[in-house]
From TrEMBL:
GO terms assigned for molecular function: ATP binding; ATP hydrolysis activity
SUPFAM superfamilies: P-loop containing nucleoside triphosphate hydrolases
AAA+ ATPase domain ranges (all copies): 36-217
Gene3D superfamilies recorded: P-loop containing nucleotide triphosphate hydrolases
One Pfam family matching this protein: AAA_5
Descriptive protein name: Unannotated protein
Matching InterPro entries: AAA+_ATPase (IPR003593), ATPase_dyneun-rel_AAA (IPR011704), CbbQ/NirQ/NorQ/GpvN (IPR050764), P-loop_NTPase (IPR027417)
């Protein structure tokens, strides 16, 4: 049975219990998507936790997570369905070897090949034809990487929650999936698809929420370390880096420091672990130009000023 939260606060509480701390706007958007049964389009910079929303929704609702990773050139055979040509060929050879094919018309033999047992269901068809009592969670990740033609097809599927396979007929969703689309905004998603969806821009978390995220995801880290890491990451995001660190990098950094047994930041440990939070050499160089000592000082001041 599908979960039906009563308020956005119920959503926030449930997600927190499953390892994700949303802000009020995101919790409200998720609540409305579940209540109105509308797809939810999440846009934002890479690393702010868009994909994780679908994963935590799957853990919370118990619905199967079905993921479609978009990329340039993706088409129906990768996203919707294809035919298992090797199994079809084996069937033909077996029919010939046993004599079953003798006397059959070409149309009859062809009809045998296009049965559902030879159908390879890709992500979209898996979500539409799902038969369980709990709706699946369909994650359409990085939809901005797909081309216009696929986006138009996706709009049609999300409007009716049905897919037609010419050889078999129409598949319709008994329980429409909970759909989460993500975009890093490498290009603008078309207005028609946006109109079909509810929309939320996912920001980097503010300082206090990022501290709470680190405390939740890295419980072995001391509170003081969590605050200093969050403060340092907050500073890094102001340095006009090529790839500012996201929440995932904040968690990685806290985990690395905790694994090293560190209780606070200092210049030496920041220098040694900078690669866990900054993945481009140019960003590391810019941070060193800013000054690692200054970064540590700002992190300490930030953690103490709000503690």
């Amino acid at each position: 049975m599908a979960i039906s939260p009563s308020t956005p606060a119920d959503v926030a509480h449930a997600l927190s219990l499953h390892g994700y701390i949303p802000d009020e706007g995101l919790a409200t958007s998720i609540f409305l998507a579940m209540t109105l049964r509308r797809p939810l389009l999440l846009e934002g910079e890479a690393g702010v936790g868009k994909t994780e929303v679908a994963k935590v929704l799957s853990r919370w609702t118990g619905g199967e997570l079905i993921r479609l990773q978009c990329y340039e050139g993706i088409d129906v055979s990768q996203a919707v369905y294809d035919w298992d040509y090797s199994r079809q060929l084996l069937h033909l050879r077996a029919a010939e070897a046993t004599g079953e094919s003798q006397g059959l018309r070409t149309d009859d033999l062809e009809a045998q090949l296009y049965q559902e047992k030879f159908l390879l269901k890709r992500a979209l068809l898996q979500a539409i034809s799902h038969t369980g009592d709990v709706p699946p969670v369909l994650l359409i990740d990085e939809v901005d990487r797909a081309d216009d033609e696929f986006e138009a097809y996706l709009l049609e599927v999300l409007s009716e929650f049905q897919i037609t396979v010419p050889e078999l007929g129409r598949f319709s969703a008994t329980h429409p999936p909970l759909v989460v689309l993500t975009s890093n905004r490498t290009r603008d998603v078309h207005d028609a698809l946006k109109r079909r969806c509810l929309y939320h821009w996912v920001e980097h978390p503010d300082f206090e929420r990022e501290v709470a995220i680190v405390q939740l995801r890295v419980p072995q880290a001391l509170d003081s370390l969590a605050r200093q890491v969050a403060g340092a990451v907050e500073t890094l995001r102001t340095l006009n880096l090529y790839k500012p660190p996201g929440v995932a990098e904040t968690i990685d950094w806290a985990q690395a420091l905790a694994a090293l047994g560190r209780q606070h930041l200092d210049e030496a440990v920041v220098a040694a672990t900078l690669g866990t939070v900054l993945k481009y050499r140019e960003d590391q160089d810019r941070t060193r130009q800013h000054g690692l000592a200054a970064l540590v000082k700002q992190a300490l001041e930030r953690s103490l000023a709000t503690s």
